[in-house]
Amino acid sequence: MVTFKERVRGVVLSTALGDAMGAPVEKLSYEEIKKMYKRVESLRTKWYKEDYPADVNLGRKRGDGTVTDDTLMTIALINVYNKEKRHLDAYDMGNEYVKEIAFRKTYIPEFGREALIIDRLFYPEKYIFMRHVLANCEPREGGIGNMINCGAAMYIAPVGIVNAGNPKAAYDEAILFAMGHQSSYGLEAAGVLAACVAKAFEENVTVDDIVETALYFAKDGTKNAIRDLTEAAKKLRSEKAEMDTVIVTFQRVIEKYSPMKDDVHRKIEKVGIPSNHYTPSRLFSIEELPMALAFMVLNDGDYYSSILDGINSGRDTDSIGVMAGVILGAMYGDSVIRSEDVDLLQATNQMNLIEAADQFSATARLIIEQDLQLNDKRKNIL
């Protein structure tokens, strides 16, 4: 039997693993990754921008286990839970979470020094600061107007942990919290991923159970994208399809819900050109969560194969790796992760991830115990 503490470790370590595995090839297409690397299979992967001028790679470093904003924002959320020791909502996004990302320095591995997390964040995540601090918005309206992306989903796994075994509560809390950051299908993905993580804590859970949970809670384009991609994955698995066929099929399916395809870079030529990319929609979905679930189905839940296939598929590689990783990490616990990978992640990033996971495990256990006591009181009402 996998213990609760081991599952929490699995989630936290898998966040860093998927993030660091995918970071060196983020934004490359499948064909570019295949041409430059053949296949990424190790944390010790050279960043494709490593030899670029400093004005291009912005003086950052990646590779050899270096994590990015996915992990930094996940740890920031864990810190808020450890401080508050209760469930969170959008008001906590606009209060303690803003403090974590914009006012408290931490070690930023890509910079190789201490800095504010916000100095590293992409604009849709900086939006948290702009809306809650500069605009002093109603916290539950914080996500309105933001670029719709996977930014909330990539760090939402801790919400699944504090609601372990209760996917409905995880979905609801993720929506209530992340609405301070995202809206539309970006917000929906956060809710669904949190529900999947909560479900993965159940004993003897299967990948099919996880997909059913995702489909039960998902709405609109997110639901349809998950359904279509996981059904395609089942067919491809039965056919034992080659990777080229898998990627062509997956990208054809997801194009209906995320039509940007491989054109992920923001260039001056795009300015002023109208499109539906990153705008609110009931018909669209982020790519990362449906792709992560599809690769889990394709590989019948194998931990490393699911993460690595997702990373090698291209585009937002680190977040795909994170989303597959946190679900499978919750299912299997930390024993599924190679010890040399854990050692490298902790050394490179100057993070004691195991200690962070164990501290959060105690916090999550306390919150769950409080919920169970409340449920006992509710029984007396009937």
Features of this protein?
ADP-ribosylglycohydrolase fold, 2 strands, metal ion binding, Crystallin, two-stranded antiparallel sheet, 382 residues
Provide the CATH superfamily.
ADP-ribosylation/Crystallin J1
Instruction: Tell me the series of helices and strands, N- to C-terminal.
Output: HHHHHEEHHHHHHHHHHHH
Number of helices: 17
Strand-residue proportion:
under 5%
Radius of gyration: 19 Å
Query: What's the CATH architecture?
Result: Orthogonal Bundle
Unreliable residue stretches: none
Report the major sheet. Answer: 2 strands, antiparallel
Tally of discrete structural domains: 1
What gap, in angstroms, lies between the N and C termini?
A: 35 Å
Protein name: Crystallin
Coiled coil: 219-246
GO molecular function: metal ion binding
InterPro entries: ADP-ribosylglycohydrolase, Ribosyl_crysJ1, Ribosyl_crysJ1_sf
Q: Could you walk me through the main structural features you see in this protein, from its secondary elements to its overall organization?
A:
There is one protein chain. By secondary structure, this protein is mainly α. The chain is globular and about 65 Å long. 59% of the residues lie in helices and 2% in strands. The mean pLDDT is 96. The chain has helices at 4-22, 30-37, 54-57, 69-84, 90-102, 123-134, 157-162, 167-178, 184-200, 207-217, 220-239, 243-254, 288-298, 303-312, 317-332, 339-349, 353-379, and strands spanning 105-108, 113-116. The chain has a two-stranded antiparallel ribbon with strand order 1-2. It is built from 17 helices and 2 strands. The longest helix is centred in the last third of the chain and has 27 residues, at 353-379. The chain has a single domain (4-48, 59-263, 277-376), classed as Orthogonal Bundle (ADP-ribosylglycohydrolase fold), CATH 1.10.4080.
